[in-house]
Amino acid sequence: MNKAIMMGRLTRDPLIRYGGQDNQMVIASFSLAVDRKYKSKNNGDVAETDFFNCTAFGKLGEFAEKYLKQGTKILAVGHLQNDSYTNRDGNKVYSVQIILEEIEFAERKKRQEENAEPPASGDGFMHVPDGVNDMDLPFN
Q1: In this predicted model, what pLDDT tens digit does every residue of 42-76 receive, in sequence order?
Q2: How many CB atoms sit inside 10 A of residue 9's CB?
Q3: Backbone angles phi, psi at 13, to 5 degrees
Q4: A single GO BP annotation from the record (predicted)?
Q5: Residue 138 vs residues 9, 49, 64, 77, 134: alpha-carbon distances, Å
Q6: C or N terminus of the chain, fewer CB within 10 Å?
Q7: Domain chopping of the chain, boundaries
Q8: Cβ-count burial of 117 within 10 angstroms (0-12 exposed, 13-18 middle, 19+ buried)?
Q9: DSSP per position, the chain
Q10: What is the pLDDT at residue 118?
Q11: What does the alpha-carbon distance between residue 79 and residue 72 come to, in Å, rounded to a whole number?
C-alpha cells in the first residue's frame, strides 16, 4: 500500500501548466511545508519542518489553481512516486513527490474584506448567497 497523508502550508502559489493529449488538463505543482515534532532531552518538544513536492492533476489541479495560494493550510492525501533523471554532469538524480488524490482545507478562511458578510449563525456553515451556481463551489 502506498498512501501519504500530510497537513501543512503551501510554501508558494501553485505552479500551473497544462498537459494531456489535448493540452487541456491542468497540472498544479507546489511545495508543502510539514512540521515534524520530536522530543529533545534539553528543549522538550521541538519541531522541524520537512518540505514535500506535490502534484495535482485534472479537476484537483483546477481546484488548486483556483483556491490555493502561498500560506494556505491544507490536508493532502495521495501516494508517493519516485522520479529520476540524468543531469548535465551525467549523474543520476532521484526525487520523490506526492501525487495528490484529495485536498482539504485545514483551517477556516480569514475574512479578507472588512465588509464581508458574517455567517448567519454560529453553526459553522458558510453563508452562500442566492444565485450562486453550485458548480462554482469548491466542495462539489
Answers
A1: 777 778 899 999 999 999 999 999 999 999 999 99
A2: 17
A3: -65, 145
A4: DNA replication
A5: 18, 29, 10, 17, 9
A6: N
A7: 4-107
A8: exposed
A9: ---EEEEEEESSPPEEEEESTTS-EEEEEEEEEEEEEEEETTTEEEEEEEEEEEEEEHHHHHHHHHH--TT-EEEEEEEEEEEEEE-TTS-EEEEEEEEEEEEEE-SPPPP-STTPPPPSSTTSPPP--TT--GGGSTT-
A10: 52
A11: 21
Range with lowest mean pLDDT among 22-26, 79-83, 114-118 = 114-118
Q: Which CATH architecture has domain 4-107?
A: Beta Barrel (2.40)
For the segment 22-43, the average pLDDT, to the nearest whole number, is 88
pLDDT at residue 134, rounded to an integer: 59
Q: Measured between alpha carbons, how far is 102 from 89 in angstroms, rounded to an integer?
A: 37
Q: Which grid coordinates are listed for 80?
A: 508517493
pTM of the model: 0.69
Nearest of 133, 134, 57, 65 to residue 102 by alpha carbon: 57
For the chain, report the end-to-end CA distance as a whole number of angstroms.
28
C-alpha cell at 63: 481546484
